[in-house]
């Protein structure tokens, strides 16, 4: 794959990420703000209306507070940077973090976004892998041309040396481990 083709695919994937971030931001921000306002209003009304605490009212407040606490304090999870990050985790199939769409349209869009984005990102990875493979193959060929001047007749001697080295390492390590286990057994008695 040529570099220009790879750059076009990369640009397409980046534009797809930006588009996804904008859509997720648009779909989820209003719902997130509404949930935050419900929590703030419930807390204010409770504090203004009640001097002493009733058990059912306390349960209602705790339900709303628990919901808000599970979402964290109100630092938006769907600002453009977070939405862009979420879009990236969808198409790369990483799935990092605990952010997910809460609205029905957000969930539906996420499914279709992944159906298009995952193959698109896979195509980009295949192109990058193809390009890196070509570059590495050429680099290895140049290194071999520079440093490997061996002929085919030298290989049997080289192979004999490697077999001798491997056999020596295995037998020496076996003897050392055998001796060490005897010493350890004697010390443990």
TrEMBL record:
Pfam families, per the entry: Ion_trans_2 (PF07885)
Location within or outside the cell: Membrane
Presence of keyword Protease: no
Residues of the Potassium channel domain: 68-130
Topological relation to the membrane, as annotated: Multi-pass membrane protein
GO MF, any single term: potassium ion leak channel activity
Main location: membrane
UniProt entry keywords in alphabetical sequence: Ion channel, Ion transport, Membrane, Potassium, Signal, Transmembrane, Transmembrane helix, Transport
Gene3D superfamilies, per the entry: 1.10.287.70
Domain of life: Eukaryota
Gene Ontology biological process terms, A to Z: stabilization of membrane potential
Signal peptide: 1-20
Membrane spanning stretches: 80-99, 108-128
GO CC annotation, single: plasma membrane
Name listed for the protein in its UniProt record: Potassium channel domain-containing protein
Source species of the chain: Denticeps clupeoides
Native organism taxonomy: Eukaryota, Metazoa, Chordata, Craniata, Vertebrata
């Amino acid at each position: 794959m040529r570099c220009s083709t790879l750059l076009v695919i990369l640009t397409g994937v980046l534009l797809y990420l930006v588009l996804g971030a904008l859509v997720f931001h648009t779909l989820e921000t209003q719902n997130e703000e509404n949930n935050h306002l419900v929590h703030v209003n419930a807390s204010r009304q409770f504090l203004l209306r009640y001097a002493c605490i009733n058990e059912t009212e306390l349960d209602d407040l705790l339900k709303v507070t628990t919901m808000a606490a599970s979402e964290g304090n109100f630092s938006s999870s769907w600002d453009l940077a977070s939405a862009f990050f979420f879009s990236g985790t969808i198409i790369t199939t990483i799935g990092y973090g605990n952010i997910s769409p809460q609205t029905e349209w957000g969930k539906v869009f996420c499914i279709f976004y992944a159906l298009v984005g995952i193959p698109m990102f896979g195509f980009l990875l295949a192109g990058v892998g193809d390009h890196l493979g070509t570059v590495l193959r050429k680099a290895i060929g140049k290194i071999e041309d520079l440093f490997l001047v061996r002929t085919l007749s030298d290989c049997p001697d080289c192979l004999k040396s490697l077999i001798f080295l491997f056999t020596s390492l295995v037998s020496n390590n076996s003897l050392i481990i055998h001796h060490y286990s005897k010493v350890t057994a004697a010390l443990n008695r």
